[in-house]
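PROTEIN DESIGN WORKSHEET
SECTION A - STRUCTURE
LENGTH: 227
TOKENS:
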């Protein structure tokens, strides 16, 4: 049931305009289910990858018992945290994008917008995301060498899937908020990108300032010690 709907959205048989009335509850329900599946695959893959790394590093005898105890806990934590983070991200991200859309004249409901975006994210992660995760899991089962080769392929395919996800989000934004593609691009891509660049510049300036202050303090202490 869920998978068929996700696949229709992924393959564009069911267009964003067709799901533009999705409620927040429905969208988040789909997202939780898809995220649980992804979390299971990611948790097992991470466990296998860490085991391969410890084996290659020759620390299996030392870290093996620890991995035997912590490995299952790591898998369970990943399964639990993946849907939680997905839901939090969907709500916060959807709310922020909704504000940007409103600034540009958007007319949609925030709950419908969040629900629609959540359903799209669920469709992408529950289909293409699961396939990529399974490919990575197969690579992890083959050892670190095979996993590294597979990781490059998965990364490239993930980029393509991410771009398709962005296109669906833009079209969903147009449908729900009743705005043009140009305004949707500004709301979803341009404004967040500008804000991200500004925050990055501010963070870099603060970091440099802290480094300079630390170097200045160290230099001052050196001068006092010389006296």
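SECTION B - SEQUENCE
RESIDUE ASSIGNMENT:
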């Amino acid at each position: 049931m869920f998978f068929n709907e996700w696949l229709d959205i992924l393959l564009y048989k069911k267009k964003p305009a067709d799901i533009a009335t999705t409620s927040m509850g429905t969208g988040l329900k789909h997202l939780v289910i898809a995220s649980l599946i992804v979390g299971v695959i990611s948790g097992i893959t991470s466990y296998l990858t860490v085991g391969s790394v410890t084996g290659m590093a020759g620390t299996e005898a030392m870290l093996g018992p620890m991995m035997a105890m912590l490995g299952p806990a790591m898998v369970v934590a990943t399964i639990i945290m993946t849907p939680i983070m997905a839901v939090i991200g969907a709500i916060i991200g959807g709310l922020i994008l909704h504000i940007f859309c409103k600034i540009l004249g958007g007319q949609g409901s925030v709950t419908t917008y969040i629900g629609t975006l959540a359903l799209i994210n669920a469709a992408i992660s529950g289909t293409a995301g699961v396939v990529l995760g399974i490919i990575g899991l197969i690579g992890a089962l083959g050892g670190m060498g095979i996993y590294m080769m597979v990781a490059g392929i998965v990364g490239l395919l993930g980029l393509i899937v991410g771009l398709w996800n962005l296109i669906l989000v833009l079209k969903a934004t147009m449908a729900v908020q009743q705005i043009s593609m140009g305004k949707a691009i500004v709301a979803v891509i341009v404004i967040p990108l500008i804000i991200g660049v500004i925050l990055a510049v501010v963070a870099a300036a603060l970091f440099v300032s802290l480094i300079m202050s630390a170097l200045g303090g160290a230099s001052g202490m050196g001068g006092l010690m010389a006296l």
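SECTION C - NOTES
Residues 181-226 form the longest helix (46 residues).
Residues 2-179 form one domain.
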